Amino acid sequence: MSDVERLIPYPDRDSVLWWAALARHEFVQQRCDDCGTWRWPPRAMCSGCGSFTWTWQPAAGRGTVISCIRTHHAFLPGFEAPYFTVFVSIDEQADIVMPGTWHHADPPQVGLRVQVFFDDIDVREGAPVTLVGWQPADD
């Protein structure tokens, strides 16, 4: 997709490094240095123990579809209907559910094993943005 008007996320203080990693096609997650809890979306404090110490760690970029939505009418520019949004429980920690667009010809199914797809989006102004998408796992 190129030169489209599309709403894109704006990195904030806690997520700027997440977006930079995605731009490099690296799938990372924050992990608490004190209790080991993985977390997403990025934030300053651990919801498990309240710690403010954490590091970015590589993650597998794999998970399981737990839900999906088929949109029949595009409500936003830059999306061609119909399209699917999938919600994936990631392997590192099952309670982390990450949404993303679906990148495969066949419709997604609940329980399907998936892997990350780096969705590079050209925007009218500014640098390209990479979003998380999902596709069937190749294993």
Order of helices and strands: HEEEEEEEE
- What ranges have pLDDT less than 50 throughout 5 or more consecutive residues? none
- The count of strands amounts to 8
How many helices? The count is 1
Q: Name the overall outline.
A: globular
Tell me the radius of gyration.
Answer: 16 Å
Mean pLDDT: 91
In order across it, which strands form the biggest sheet?
4-5-6-8-7
**C-alpha end-to-end distance:** 28 Å
Helix amount, in percent? under 10%
How many domains would you count in the coordinates?
Answer: 1
Structure classification: mainly beta
Largest sheet: 5 strands, mixed, barrel
Taken as a percent bin, the fraction of beta residues is 35-45%
Give an overview of the whole structure.
The chain contains one helix and eight strands, in the order H-E-E-E-E-E-E-E-E. It is mostly beta strands. It has one domain (16-136). The strands form two sheets. It has a five-stranded mixed barrel. It has a three-stranded antiparallel β-sheet with strand order 2-1-3, with helices on one face. A hairpin with a 6-residue loop joins strand 5 (83-90) and strand 6 (97-102).
Brief rundown of the structure:
By secondary structure, the chain is mainly β. Helices cover 6% and strands 38% of the residues.
